[in-house]
Amino acid sequence: MQYRDRGVVLRTIKLGEADRIVTIITASNGKVRAVAKGARRTRSRLGGLIEPLRHVDLQMYRGRGELDIVTGAVTLDRWPEVREDLERLGKAMTLAEAVDQSVHDRGDDPVPYQMLVGALGRLDQADSDMLVPAFLLRLLSHEGTAPMLDGCVMATGCEGAAIVAFDPALGGVTCETHRRGRPMSPDALALLRSVAAGQVNAALEAPTGPHAREAAAAISRMWEYHMDRRLRSADLLDS
Exposed, middle or buried by CB within 10 Å (0-12, 13-18, 19+), for 167? Predict the structure, then answer.
């Protein structure tokens, strides 16, 4: 069956001597794994189009096997500012890896695709320390595993107690009375609450500093707890 869709290439791996297997998050078909035949040949036009972090309009063929076949592609966006800046490139790779980890093959949920295209477009325009943690938090929320940030997860016996820590195993923040997890400052908590409330632009415009890094570390721990694996691309940002 032939079909057409838009998608962002998340990653590629070699297949045989000339082909590639590409993983793509699409607008209408969820996460798709497909073979790009001949993509590694020097003269292959397809090979230059099917590469990580490229937004493409795809012609695909779905057969009986697990892998579809890419029959054609046209570039929609390649986000040049992201590619020319190593810091932004590392963040973009983390966004793509997060989508790859959290989305199952196939499906018809357009939100991860829409989120990734929006985040990469924003990153191409301007960098922000909060872009990756905001994206991860919104993706966790979409998956139904967002941390509790409005009040202590212990719920009872917290009257008047200040929020002072964050514990991914408990699912959110804890107060002075039930202190668990790592310390969290009021400013870092405010950043996370603004993202959770949908005020993403305000969080992205927050100045670079320790509070943004603290918020990012908390969300990374939450992500690793729920996904049970690290975001390897995020390690590049800390190196």
Answer: buried
Tell me: the pLDDT tens digits for 114-147?
A: 999 999 999 999 999 899 999 999 999 998 999 9
pLDDT at 235: 57
Region of residue 69 (phi > 0: left; psi between -120 and 50: alpha; otherwise: beta): beta
- Domains of the chain are 2-77 (2.40.50.140), 128-238 (no CATH)
CA distance 218 to 146: 12
> Which residues of the chain register pLDDT less than 50?
236-239
CA angle (216, 220, 209) in 5-degree steps: 15
Q: Over the Cα atoms of the chain, what is R_g?
A: 20
